[in-house]
Amino acid sequence: MNLVSKIALAGVLAMTASTVNAQNKETETKAAETTLPGVEQDPFIWLEEARSDKSLEWVSDESNRTLAHMAMDPRFDEIQAEILEILDSQDRIPMVSIRPDGLYNFWQDKDNPRGLVRRTTMESYRTDNPEWETVLDVDALAKSEGREWVYKGSTCLPPLERHCMIALSDGGKDATIMREFDMNTGNFVEGGFELAESQGSIEWIDEDTLLVTRNFDETLMTESEYPYTTRLWKRGQSIDDAQEIFRGDRKDVWSGAGLLRDNKGSIHARTAFRGVSFFETENFVEKDGEWLRLNIPLKASLYGIVDGHLLYSTNVDWEVDGTTFPADSLVAVDLEEWKADPNGAKKTLVWAPAERQTKRGGAISGNSLFVSMLDNVVGKVVRIDFDNGKWVTQDVDLPANSSLDIATASSETDEIMFTSNGFLEPTTLFYSDGGKPEALKQSPVRFDSEGMSVEQHEATSKDGTKIPYFIVKPQGMKMDGTTPTLLYGYGGFQVSQLPSYLSVTGKTWLERGGAYVLANLRGGGEFGPGWHQTAMRENKQRTWDDFIAVGEDLIARGFTSPKHLGIQGGSQGGLLVGTFLTQRPDLINAAIVQIPLFDMLRLPLIGRGASWVGEYGDPRIAEERAWIEEYSPYQKIAEGVDYPSPLLWASTADDRTHPSHARKAAAKLKSLGQPYWYFEDMTGGHSGGVDNKQRAKIKAIETVYLMQRLMDSDSK
């Protein structure tokens, strides 16, 4: 499996899907399992039925109450307009992917809220006003078909990338349909490949053959509701008749087969994997008609083909023949030697992280491997080549002290693009065709940052670990505890939280005198796999302790005070906010709980929660339930506690974390007479918005809520 395929599969693993009817049926089935060992009957379990009449009536009443209150604030319309102007701005950088027939961009604005897939030439892209050719108009498609289509990307046949499978979601769910599309004609192929709504992936073998890993029926889904079988599908054949070539196990998180392909499009092997947990994978290669398991760690994966070598990436120390390759390193084998003897090929080190370094993304161009990394939470990009029998690493000449990313790379040439930005520095797009990167485009300034500054500090967590965080200070900030401060965190799944340009937050919050804080908590990936692995499962409380420690440090330093401190996070970050809210409500006066996990004792029975027991543990196992019970926010909401009137929001179409987590939290607060706000949109999915207008509305609700709680004098 090549690097691009691996990244795509990882993305699908973080996504989940099924049809609305299947989702309701499955949810109702799970809701019928009203108890787990040690879990009392839940009076709000009916809210787990995502689209039942009773649930939707409750959602409508709560959402209308919240929106009406926030919209009455005289600041709401102004803030919403400011946000929408930024999101719809015509002068923002149109980020592209480099493909054989041009540069492709997906664009949304007020005239195209669902978006356009469009392309241009490199020559035109260099100008201030590129000429774009529309390839797919998603708004027109949605209107003609009467569906709430949301574009979810395409998978194309290399090297020409003319034949593509377009993924479309109805309402923003992770679930997608897939249809064959001809990029040359700009039309869906009549009678072409088409897959019903599901989650999963496809790979092209040739223009008439696909590898399909999907939820073919309910019996072929894992407990986490991912697929675990792959079929070889030929043009003109019913998918029901397609040959199954790989089968994992129903107990896997998910499983499937793919292709090991080089950057020229040549296929070198069929590969497969079994996700035995969210972070552990058994890898296989087809050898002499049989599936051979690769002798690599469960936390290692195929990374891609570079200069005639197959590369592995490992998240744990890997000992091979007396040599230990450190966690987070890249390891190579000669490709032809590997094809002859997959487990016996000699392994050599390509790259290993220095102290406080970790790799992030990667891209394989026509001739080189590029890896973006963090060096003490500062961005860096290196180019790696096999030259004269050894691996040579060179730094790419990009701005220092910035967040750096690889934006896109050509698989045929040396063309590659990078981005650079910071909290107060708009994004710059750099382009290189083998030489020094040149600044190609720059995003306009979106807010007045004069007098603002960025500082990095460390808080001391409960066990003594130093937790870094950034604070963006508004102009004229006083160290007397009066500054309204928003603390944001995530802290899970080895996901890093990095400085990025605060276009919307800068305009709506910083300009109005608020401060913004970004915490680098254990559980994330800012310092490599170990930073994550030290705060998962039985040690997950360390993440919650880290977030609380940052809040305490902000108050101790005089940056803010409990009356003026608010916290925010989404998904795993919503769980993070929930634990802070229930463990230290005295430290805060606002909490934004976005699309959260919240009822951790029913985690495997709600949405795709079974897939995440690798991060948190499994509440069906007594030993693991014991440590989850210590923090599960839903159960920890208690009578007689003064909670800071949290704002919870979710999406009915979220088929990943499921809206019932947020719903039940709000319902329980209400039952205890606690003040709260709840908002839920029918569409948007886990991303929280299908178009800019919807995104602006949600962000305006959040901002007005923060102003009322942290800026207004009667907020406590």
Automatic annotation (TrEMBL):
The keyword Secreted does not apply. The keyword Transcription does not apply. Residues 1-22 form the signal peptide. Keywords: Hydrolase, Protease, Serine protease, Signal. One of its GO terms (biological process) is proteolysis. One of its GO terms (molecular function) is serine-type endopeptidase activity. Residues 508-703 form the Peptidase S9 prolyl oligopeptidase catalytic domain. Residues 37-436 form the Peptidase S9A N-terminal domain. Its EC number is 3.4.21.26. GO terms for cellular component: cytosol. PANTHER family: PROLYL ENDOPEPTIDASE. This is Prolyl endopeptidase. It comes from Altererythrobacter epoxidivorans.
